Amino acid sequence: MAQALKYTLRLLIGVLLTFVIHLGFRYMAGAELWEHRITAAYGTNFILAAAIMGFLILAPMRWQASLGFLFLAGSALKFVLFFLFFYPVYKQDGTISRPEFFTFFIPYALCLFFETQSVIRVLKERDR
């Protein structure tokens, strides 16, 4: 349980720091700060990453051999939610602009990095 809380705290700090930096770049570029569902993109990716990793960290021992597949299922879930909730909004004008792409991709990539590092750590600890 402590490992899941530690992971979630590290993830939260990373997401908040990246969010502030992202907003800073948008501000310096003269772009609308809250455009392209930026808070939803960061929030959704954070919640999903925390839930997926919490599940994997707390998974029963009988599921240990399947952690990699469960991790991939979590990634597939993120893609499904992207195509259901973000893609239609981004594609309304017929194209996905660079700011729209980066608004979703930056938090997605960040959370994926944290998840991957944590899965590696969990698997190494459970191999001992």
Q: What can you see in these coordinates?
A:
The chain is elongated. It starts with a helix and ends with a helix. The longest helix is centred in the C-terminal third of the chain and has 30 residues, at 98-127. It has helices at residues 2-28, 38-57, 67-90, 98-127. It contains four helices and no strands. Helix 3 runs antiparallel to helix 4. With 128 residues, it is mostly helical. It has one domain.
Question: What is the element layout, followed by pairings?
Answer:
Blueprint: H1 2-28, H2 38-57, H3 67-90, H4 98-127
Brief characterization of the structure:
This protein has 128 residues and is an all-alpha fold. The protein has four helices and no strands.
Described by strand count, sense and barrel closure, the largest sheet is: none
Q: Output the helix-strand order.
A: HHHH
Head-to-tail CA distance between termini: 18 Å
What structural class results from the helix and strand content?
mainly alpha
Whole-number radius of gyration?
Answer: 16 Å
In helices, the fraction of residues equals: over 70%
Overall domain count: 1
Task: Identify the overall geometry.
Answer: elongated
Question: Roughly what fraction of the amino acids lie in strands?
Answer: under 5%
Which parts are unreliable, with pLDDT below 50 for 5 consecutive residues or more?
none
- pLDDT averaged residue by residue: 92
Number of helices, where a helix is a run of at least 4 consecutive DSSP H or I residues: 4
What's the count of strands?
0
